[in-house]
Structure formats: structure tokens, C-alpha cells
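Sample intake sheet
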Amino acid sequence: MTFEELAARRQSCRNFDAEKPVETEKLEKIVNTARCAPSACNSQPYTLHVVSEKGLAADIAKCTQGMGMNKHCSAARAFIVIEEEGAGLLVKTSGRLKDQDFASVDIGILCAHILFEAEALGVSSCVIGWFDEKKIKQLLAIGEKKRVRLVIALGYAAEGDVLREKKRKPVAELAKFYR
């Protein structure tokens, strides 16, 4: 499969199969691929917390469900919680000088690697930005001053989950070519 085909196929899963766990080998492969993601000055300003233990995964799912949000996470069988780490002096200094948040960009690139490797392995995913950060930090013993930036729900799509049509801007609206 080409990368273009993989990108066209990947979608946010909102209907996980609650009965089928994600194999440890696949979670390890996803993380191994994610560690190849580029980052500013190779700072890798993140730690991945991979949760597949059933009870803890259920607790993480509950942390994503405030105000009735993300009900589909109850059926996800694994989560990757992305903790932001402090960047090195060079990255911090250049970020301040150029008014750029390199760690957020780096985490976005890391997240894309996770999503596409998961899809390549047949594992469905959904990026979650709505969560109880304080509770997740307690569950995973993440320091009080650290930040949880994203939670990625993982699992297998339930039978009958179909590929939805992608609604994207046309190229002419999205990109400007200077030739």
C-alpha cells in the first residue's frame, strides 16, 4: 500500500470492538515507529504512556468522557497518553526568539507517526484532546508540573464500521503553488 492509500484509509474510529485487545507486539511496533519521528534539534520532548491493562484502560477512557464527550472510548482497548517533556536549551531559546512552540509541533508529528503505523497494522485510532488531565496524571504518576498533551485511543474497529467519505478542502483552497 502506498502512503497516499494509507492516508486515504485512515480515519478516526468512533466504534471500537470492545472484545478484541490490541496485541502487545503491535503496540510495541507503533511506539518503535513513533520514535523515528523528527523533532526540533532531535529533542524528542515527550514520553509515551502505553496503556493496555484492561482496568487502567477503562480508567483512562473515563478521563476522556467529561460532559458526555467521547463515549466511544469505553470500547477502546488501549491508549497512548502523550506527556510533554521539557525541551533542551537550544530548542527553548530558538522557540522564544522565533515565537514558535516547537514541542507542540513535534508532538503533532509524533502523533501522525503513531496514527499511520497503527493503521498500517490494522489498528484503528482516535486522537482525543478532551480529557481530565489532572486525573490522568494521577493514574499514570505523571509529575504535577508536566503536561498531558494528547490521548490516542486504540483498538479494532467494530464489525460494520465503514470507511467514511473524507470531506477536505480542495487543493486550490488548501495550497498555493509558486512555480
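Comment: The mean pLDDT is 95. The CA atoms of residues 27 and 50 lie 8 Å apart.
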